Structures are given as C-alpha cells and as structure tokens.
Amino acid sequence: MFKPLSFWIGLRYTRAKRKNGFISFISLSSMLGLAVGVAALIIVLSVMSGFQKEVSQNILKLTPHANVFAFNGNIKDWKHVRSLAEDIEVVKNAAPYIDKQVMLSTAKSVSGGLIQGIVPEIEENVTELGNLLQQGSLSALKAGEWNILLGDVLAQNLGVSIGDKVTVITPETRSAGLSRIPTLKQFTLAGIFHSGMHPADSGLSIIHLADAQKLFRMGTDVTAIRLEFDDMLDAPVLTQEVIKALPNQYLVSDWTRQYANYFRAVRFEKTAMFIILMLIVTVAAFNIVSTLVMVVQDKRTDIAILRTLGMQPSSVMMIFIVQGIIIGFIGVILGLLLGLPVAYNVGTIVHWIEIQTGSQILDPTLYNLSALPSEVIPLEVAIIAISAFLLAILATLYPAWSASRTQPAEALRYE
User: Fold this and answer.
1) Model confidence pLDDT, tens digit, residues 24-37
2) Buried/exposed 169-201: b ≥16 CB within 10 Å, e otherwise
3) Angle at Cα 115 formed by Cα 363 and Cα 93, nearest 5°?
C-alpha cells in the first residue's frame, strides 16, 4: 500500500496542471480553508490564554497562593502556626491577616466592603501591595496610629484623598444604655492602591493587624495566614504537601479554589471556541472530499489503465490518500506560518490598527490592559496542527476507497 509508485503518482496528480480548472480551484480553497482555520484557532486560543494569564496575575497581586485556616474559627497562636508553615520546604513566605466586612463612611458617601488587617513588614513578602500603591506608602500603617489604605475606585466613590478621615463601621456592637449600637472608629487615609481588579479596587481597605485586632476585639487572634509558593501554578499540588505537614486542626485552601468558577468558565469558553473554530477546518476537510471525488472521476481512465497493468486496489487507494495528505500538510503549514507570527505580535497589530483607523479596540480603562495580551502555548499549537492534519487524512478515505473499487472494464468501455 505504501509503495513509492503510489506516492509519486499521487504527487504528480497534485502538482500537475489539470484541464479542469474548477478542480484546481477547489483544491486551492481546501488548502486555504485549512490554513485559515488553523491560524484562527492559534490566534484566538493564544489571546484567550493571554487574557487568562493576565487576569491570574492581577488576581494574585493581592491574593495569596494559599491560606491556612483553623477548623474551630480564628487562629489563636499565629506566630507559632506561621513558623510551622515557613518550616515546610515548599512554602516561600507566610503572613497573618484579618478580614471582615464593614461599612466605610465619609462626609460625602457611604460604601460597604472588606477590610483587612496586615503586618506591613511581613505582608510585602507575600503580596505585591507595596508596588500597587499610587499614593502613600505601606510603612504608613503603624500600630495605634489608625491609618488606612483604600482602593482607588473606593477612594473615589467615598470622595476622599490622602489625609482625609474615613469612619469604619463594624458589625460588632456595644452597649449604650438599653440598646446596642455598632462599633465606629475613625481612620486617616494614608494611601491609595490600584490592583487592576475591580472587586479589590472598589471594595478593599487595609489597616494594621494590631488596629484590626482592637477594632474587632480579637485579642491576639487572626483570621488566617497567607502562604506564598515559588510558582502560583503549582499551588494545588503544593497545598497538599502543606496539608500533610500541618496539624490536623488546620485547613489549607489554594487560590484556584477561591476563583474556581472563573477558571472553570475560562476553560469552558476555550473548549467551546476550539470546537466552533474547528468547524472551519471541517468545512475545509469537506472541500478535500469534493476535490478528490472530482479527481477520481477525472482520472478514471488512468486508474483503469493502472489496474490493467496490475496495480493493486490498495495502491490505487494510496495514490489519492497521498493527494489528501499533501493538501492537508500544506494547509496546516500555511496556517502555522500565518497564525504564529500574528499570535506573537497581536498586541502590536491591534495597536497599529487603532492608530490607522483612529478607533479604540481595547479600552484600557475598561479592561485594565495597555495592550491585547497573547500567550502561545506549544501544546495547544501542536493539538491544533495534529487535529487539522488528521481531519484532512480522514477526508481522503472515502474518495480513495471509491477509486480503489473502479472496474477497468467499466471505465474503459467508452474510451
């Protein structure tokens, strides 16, 4: 079936100038269809991977790779637990924190959100909070000075700037005669940060851990301890090692669990997009079927002569499989040559289009991105190329099988 004669005849049929120009057009359109489908898949999936990576990095600017919680509530002796965590080989850094839901009030507005208590000198080893500050500094958070940091959107909504007073209203209540009233404490705005994630920028405020313990009457307790690993993508695996090393009364949860719905949605969207765009490749594969069916009809006399000379049906079948393989191979290679350069430079291309058209395709204020992100994943490119090539080969089977069943006497009857 794989004799060189079949290969060379199939190659000659592919390269030869056909009298029927329509067959040549269909063959060319099949190659271009495969090329466009492969290129579109590479570009779209690379952009989606780029968005996923960019958002993941933005999320982890203020989100720990993993958290250690106590099963029975707050962590009592956080210094001891932090020391245990940092003794684990896979843990790079650990930092305690408190988080609670509060109301923030100013003379101009009121807003709800999450407040976190941190130890500044420890926190900067675990998150990028210090690098995210647009105004002020992390060192401004000092125990007993009652300073606060706000997200830029939250600060704008409250209408405050550096040095202004912000009243924090907690769910904790205290007695006032015959009734109970919420606990209020006035803070001074000492810094404004921007993380690129709207939930944090519009609803997160940060104070010193000692101030938070006093505000919520927690004594020396903390809510949890943040953990940092060398690679955020390994967090689900490394978390299992932390669980085994810590005592049983502690629960460890990695960042992918916190944002499980988001990443599940991204994976679903990528899978759906892959299936939709593969339809382009499938259409091109159908074009290969129609091309080879017409070639078989056009070459019936040649096939009959070859069969009369003793060529086996399997060898005849291989002639047309070779044609389909060549069409598929050229189409996939063209798709790679078109898709990969565009995927690697999609941000530059989009920026050039914006300049030429005078319009804005990607609004940085909306997406918090200065350029369209793209990440080419070699495994995805390989899957796309192999899938397209296999479809092209499958498309050749019926026409090739049909050619192998040609009866010489029937084909030569009217010649």
Assistant:
1) 666 777 788 888 88
2) bbeeeeeeeeeeeebebebebbbbbbbbbeebb
3) 85
Contact predicate 129/116, CB 8 Å:
no
> Cα(first)–Cα(last) distance of the chain, in Å?
28
CA angle at residue 233 from 256 to 261, to 5 degrees? Answer: 25
For residue 135, the surrounding DSSP H or E stretch is strand 133-136
Strands 93-105 and 133-136: unpaired
Asked if 11 and 329 touch (Cβ cutoff 8 Å), the reply is: no
The span from the CA of 155 to the CA of 98, in Å, is: 21
DSSP state of 16: S
Distance CA 152, CA 161 (A): 10
Residue 275's φ and ψ, nearest 5 degrees, are -65, -45
Bridge partners, residue 398, by sequence: none
Kindly state the tokens that stand for 72. 């029975």
d(CA 96, CA 82) in angstroms, rounded, equals: 7
User: pLDDT higher for 325 or 82?
Assistant: 82
pLDDT tens-digit series, residues 331-374:
899 999 999 999 998 888 887 887 888 777 666 555 556 667 88
Number of residues in the chain: 415
Q: What is the pLDDT of residue 69?
A: 93
Q: Residue 59: which of 182, 205, 200 has the closest Cα?
A: 200
Neighbours of 407 (CB within 10 A): 12
Matching residue, tokens 């990695």: 254
What tokens were used for 259? 């944002």
Alpha helix segments (H runs only) across 251-312 = 255-258, 260-298, 300-308
Q: How far apart are CA 166 and CA 195, in angstroms?
A: 21
Q: Which amino acid belongs to residue 322?
A: V
Nearest partner of 126 among 255, 25, 217, 304, judged by Cα: 255
Evaluated on CA atoms 7, 12, 15, 21, the torsion sign reads negative
Tell me the whole-structure pTM to 2 decimals. Answer: 0.66
Q: Are 185 and 205 in contact (CB under 8 A)?
A: no
Q: How wide is the angle at C-alpha 235 spanned by C-alphas 229 and 240, nearest 5°?
A: 105
Is the Cβ–Cβ distance between 8 and 358 less than 8 Å? no
